[in-house]
Amino acid sequence: MSFLIKRMTVIGVGLMGGSMALGLRERDLVGEIIGVDRRSALDAALELGVIDHAHTQAEEGVKGSSLVVVATPVSAIAPTVKSIAAHLEPDALVIDMGSVKGSIVKQCEAWMPDGVNFVGSHPIAGREHSGVRAAYGDLFDGSRTILTPSDSVSSAAVERAKQIWEAVGSSVEIMDAQYHDRVLAATSHLPHLMAYNVVNTLSDLEDDIRAEVFRYAASGFRDFTRIASSDPVMWRDICIENRDAILDILDRFKNDLEKLSKRVAEGDMDGLYGIFARSRATRARVLEENKILRGE
Ligand SMILES: NC(=O)c1ccc[n+]([C@@H]2O[C@H](COP(=O)([O-])OP(=O)(O)OC[C@H]3O[C@@H](n4cnc5c(N)ncnc54)[C@H](O)[C@@H]3O)[C@@H](O)[C@H]2O)c1
Ligand SMILES: O=C(O)C(=O)C[C@]1(C(=O)O)C=C[C@@H](O)C=C1
User: Fold this and answer.
1) Helices marked H in the chain
2) Ligand 2 centre from 125 Cα, in Å?
3) Which of 16, 77, 100, 105 gets mutated to test ligand 1 (max ligand atoms within 8 A of its CB)?
4) 188 CB under 6 A from ligand 2?
5) Fewer Cβ atoms within 10 Å of its own Cβ: the N or the C terminal residue of the chain?
6) Exposed, middle or buried, 276 (CB in 10 Å: 0-12/13-18/19+)?
7) In terms of CATH, what superfamily is 179-293?
8) pLDDT of residue 175
9) How many angstroms does the Cα of residue 188 sit away from the middle of ligand 2?
10) What is the predicted pLDDT for the residue at 1?
11) Residue extent(s) of CATH 3.40.50.720 domains in the chain
12) What confidence score (pLDDT) does residue 3 get?
């Protein structure tokens, strides 16, 4: 059988890395999959059939692979890529999955030996669970993936990365890495920070009322805070790596919250109606335009 990828290595076999491995495997697109991670994650990945072979050392694990997928938390991506650079096959392609791209992509591209390419990738797909047991092969189906190569990356490598993402069901768009970080700070990072904060605001209430507050939390609370179940390591790393863009959007949010607070304090009927009506209309329009948000 001729595979799209004969042998690939996934470094960080969790939700995202495991889903990429399964997505390619279930579509018969990959021959052999090597996993690199902690021993316990590797044992689970072997047991689930997500990988064929396991290594705890990335330098060893990338040998013989034409594709290397780095799916570690954001803070480990650049150090990992630096450590494998000298051990990659001459024509290998390295892609990552990090939720922040700017400085990671710049560093990783620069570390690539001649003939080897790093193509920064961010699948806009995921969920609040982590680890390989949460991985599934259709995770990327119907999603968008943003590639953030600089001009120095070969167009053949970008085309190859695009082919891999499309093979697992994602449609690909190209974006400048810094611009990506500003867009994602608004669309993904701000909502996660809000969700975490709302849960903490409620859990800091006085004992007597707190129990009642959580007892009566219903679908509104559940929908709004689903993403507060996400992995704290992932979100710590995103905040550290995308600090400036996150601070910028948080400032805007704080301003808007101040305005809302003022309208509530003043009992401003028209002002409050205006805020809620505009938001509802915007969401309806975005839902209509965006089939990912409609869940299609
Ligand atoms: N979860 C999401 O919804 C989502 C969506 C898009 C992108 N991402 C990005 O994908 C990446 C992976 O996220 P995830 O949700 O799969 O996390 P995860 O916790 O499920 O998996 C990460 C894996 O990396 C391993 N790991 C950590 N440091 C390592 C190292 N130095 N070397 C090898 N393995 C290491 C962990 O043991 C774990 O198994 C992150 O960079 C995240 O920002 C996540
Ligand atoms: O659906 C979820 O649970 C997610 O959080 C996925 C989500 C997001 O949409 O914000 C989270 C972080 C990623 O970098 C990309 C996707």
Assistant:
1) 15-26, 39-47, 58-61, 74-84, 102-111, 155-167, 177-184, 190-203, 207-215, 219-225, 232-241, 243-266, 269-289
2) 6
3) 16
4) yes
5) N
6) exposed
7) 6-phosphogluconate dehydrogenase C-terminal like domain (1.10.3660.10)
8) 98
9) 6
10) 65
11) 5-174
12) 86
Q: Which amino acid is at 67?
A: L
Tokens 């101040």 correspond to what residue?
258
pLDDT of residue 28: 96
Q: Tokens 């701000």 sit at which residue? A: 190
pTM: 0.96
Evaluate: CB of 127 within 6 angstroms of ligand 2. yes
97: left (phi over 0), alpha (psi -120 to 50) or beta: alpha
Q: For residue 3, give the 3-state DSSP assignment.
A: coil
Topology of the domain comprising 5-174:
Rossmann fold (3.40.50)
113 token code pair: 């030996």
